[in-house]
Design brief:
Layout (H helix, E strand, L loop, with lengths): L1 E3 L5 H12 L4 E3 L6 E3 L5 E7 L7 H9 L1 E3 L5 E8 L6 H10 L7 E6 L13 H23 L4 E2 L10 H11 L5 E3 L9 H5 L5 E5 L10 E5 L9 H5 L5 E3 L18
Helix pairs in contact: 1-4
Bound molecules: flavin mononucleotide and iron/sulfur cluster (SF4) (2 copies).
Flavin mononucleotide binds next to helix 1 and strand 6.
């Protein structure tokens, strides 16, 4: 079984490609059972985005709460999808699994479009498609290594794990929902952002009805912190959500395999 979290489709795509190639299932952690019983020879994989060089909070929580039962000859791996620097995601996952008495056999990475659009510009569809295409041979390589049951950390663009002392507080800071903004001239009050948020950080509240917003609803971030997946920003049909006013000119991103515009 391969477990994944994916806000914009990259990790879902990688998980599904690997699952198909090695004849297993890909399962979103958002709907997964936390009891994991492996059969003899079965593979246990985690495919995850990189968040500030480390595991996203939701993936860390899933691993921590999972009740994992290995049997014989299991093979455990993590694949980090990333846009610029993978950092120490695989090492992070290895530490989390070790705390549960589970040895992670291997770590891998796949470079893909960087959905952290406060910093990265994904407004050029051709460049983005090139990055999506460039990921395919990397995924093939990871599949080959998994088939061979390769051992060790094969992930690229790594940073020393010790740096998590620096990046943890950064992620905590950036996770504050006060950084999200909504352009009321664009928002149609559809509620998709609230419905899809994996941690229910958004509530739809009443607002004045207008020609544009006939439903008279508006998203409000009611939780102080969220998982910072940026799914709300990238999936909004009107691109009405921004992060810290830094994202409006950087485009929205959803992996082309899953989301057609
Ligand atoms: C909050 C946040 C932090 C991120 N931090 C990093 C990072 O440190 N290094 C990196 O290379 N990519 C980073 N990214 C980019 C994502 O890891 C990358 O685009 C990933 O493939 C997205 O996966 P998904 O489409 O499955 O959600 C970050 C993205 C977000 C939303
Ligand atoms: S998804 Fe976009 S348009 Fe719909 S309610 Fe949320 S911000 Fe408004
Ligand atoms: S508020 Fe947006 S960025 Fe935060 S967890 Fe929910 S969908 Fe993800």
């Amino acid at each position: 079984m391969i477990y994944y979290f994916s806000a914009t489709g990259n990790s879902k795509h990688v998980a599904e490609r690997i699952a198909e190639a090695i004849n297993t299932q890909a399962q979103s952690i958002e709907t997964a059972d936390s009891v994991i019983n492996l059969q003899t020879d079965e593979v246990l994989g985690f495919v995850t985005p990189t968040n500030w060089n480390q595991l996203p909070v939701l993936v860390r929580e899933f691993i921590r709460k999972a009740d994992i039962h290995l049997t014989q000859n299991n093979y455990v791996f993590t694949v980090a999808t990333y846009g610029a620097i993978q950092g120490f995601v695989c090492e992070d996952a290895r530490h989390e699994l070790k705390r549960k008495g589970i040895t992670m056999n291997a770590g891998f990475s796949v470079k893909m479009p960087d959905n952290w659009t406060p910093a990265f510009d994904l407004s050029d569809p051709q460049k983005v498609q090139q990055q999506v295409d460039d990921a395919e041979p990397q995924i093939d390589e990871v599949i080959e290594l998994i088939r061979k049951r390769a051992q060790g950390n094969h992930s690229k663009n790594r940073m020393p794990y010790i740096l998590h002392y620096l990046t943890n507080p950064l992620l905590e800071h950036e996770r504050q929902t006060k950084f999200f903004g909504v352009d009321d001239s664009l928002c149609i009050g559809c509620g998709l952002c609230a419905k899809k948020c994996p941690v229910q950080a958004i509530e739809m509240k009443e607002t004045a009805k207008s020609e544009n917003n006939k439903l008279g609803k508006r998203p409000v971030w009611t939780a102080e912190r969220c998982a910072l997946c940026l799914g709300c920003l990238h999936r909004c049909p009107k691109f009405a959500i921004n992060y810290d006013n830094k994202t409006q000119s950087h485009g929205q991103y959803l992996h082309s395999k899953y989301y057609k515009k």
